[in-house]
Amino acid sequence: MAYVPIPYSIEPQDPGTMLAGTQKLLAQMRTRRSCREFSDKPIPKDLIESLIAVAHTAPSGANRQPWHFVAVDDPTIKKEIRVAAEKEERESYTNRMPPAWLEALEPLGTDEHKPFLEIAPWLVVIFQENWVMIDGQKQPNYYPVESVGLAAGMFLTACHLAGLATLTHTPSPMKFLREILHRPENEKPFLLIPVGYPTANCKVPKIEKKPIEEVLQWNR
Fold first, then answer.
1. CATH code, domain carrying 146
2. 152 is in which domain, residue-wise?
3. Which of 31, 153, 156, 209 is deepest in the core (most CB within 10 A)?
């Protein structure tokens, strides 16, 4: 496809308005947390579709859009995913994770039990498409990890701003997701994200983010 330029513009705002808007967004995003205690309250399908559509606007290498979203609300499939995920997690907590990793996880209170995989009304699985067939030829996608990571971040942000809780769940290895969800061999599971409302008595670990000075360098 040939390069076709089209007009692009952003409505200008004064710096004060921009800063106020950014600070409002920051206050909202500071309340985002990883949730492991989900309500089973239903979430409409069209809302999930709209949130995924937001993620689908993410930039990607050569505009290949190397992602595929699978949204699951079927109780039988969610049960299958939970059983497979807990099997991998049990092996990880018992044999794969070194002591330092287990020590790092201890303040978060996580273990191999993942009931939220059945309780949350939706499981959204993001797959990374590593290659694609173009004109009968196998072609690699460019920067698939970075591209899918951007889409995942936009999905999490969209969910939070819509008033929904999420969790980035990564049972390792995740090959079972491709098998259960019947995805092709060119796709690799990237994230398993429960989506829903937190329970009325939901608790999350008390954690702090690093000061901005530790993650920002100015070169002026």
1. 3.40.109.10
2. 39-198
3. 156
